[in-house]
Specification:
By secondary structure, the protein is of the alpha+beta class. It contains 5 helices and 10 strands, in the order βαββββαβααβββαβ. Strands 1, 2, 3, 4, 5, 6, 9 and 10 form an 8-stranded antiparallel beta sheet that branches. Strands 7-8 form a two-stranded antiparallel sheet. β4 and β5 form a beta hairpin. The structure holds flavin mononucleotide.
Length: 175
Amino acid sequence: MSKVEVGYTDYLKETLDGLEDGLLLTSVDKKGEPNVMTIGWGSIGRIWGKPMFVVLVRPSRFTYGLIEETGEFTVNVPPKELAEAVAFCGSVSGRDHDKFKEKGLTPLPGRLVKSPLIEECVLHYECKVVHKNDVIPGELAPDIIPEFYPKDDYHRVYFGEIISVYASRDIKALA
Ligand SMILES: Cc1cc2nc3c(=O)[nH]c(=O)nc-3n(C[C@H](O)[C@H](O)[C@H](O)COP(=O)(O)O)c2cc1C
């Protein structure tokens, strides 16, 4: 399916709604081997005069090491038919699985980053990390800690400048 360039706010609602079920974040290692993980937390906005996709990744994820190595990632919005792949990519690690192969996902070369887009998805954000910081336990509302951090696995927050956004021509697949 062909992809067309769109603005980063054109499908904001679809993207933010998609976080509820999970979006697919891709990254690569130094050799160019791709990995994909599901994310449910994130935010799109404007910071330092740049369009920004902020994502939160726990240090235990294989993805964490990859983003640390390359300083980039893509976020892909899946159509509903990919629900099973989204659940899979959010439950097994790229350390033990080739999730692209096992779920029949097709990596498409990114335009401006080495991390691939996922052809079967309908929206794609290419991002370059311009800042990162860690969730500070002492600065969190106390009720959040027992629910989300029983193992002290505090997220790293990546601020990814959105440098390119593409959509499938048939964006209706989201409906
Ligand atoms: C719906 C859903 C949302 C998720 N959101 C996040 C997230 O925002 N950040 C995170 O670190 N892990 C999140 N996870 C867990 C990772 O996707 C999961 O641990 C995955 O196996 C990590 O893959 P990796 O080890 O290949 O990086 C989520 C899982 C699901 C099912």
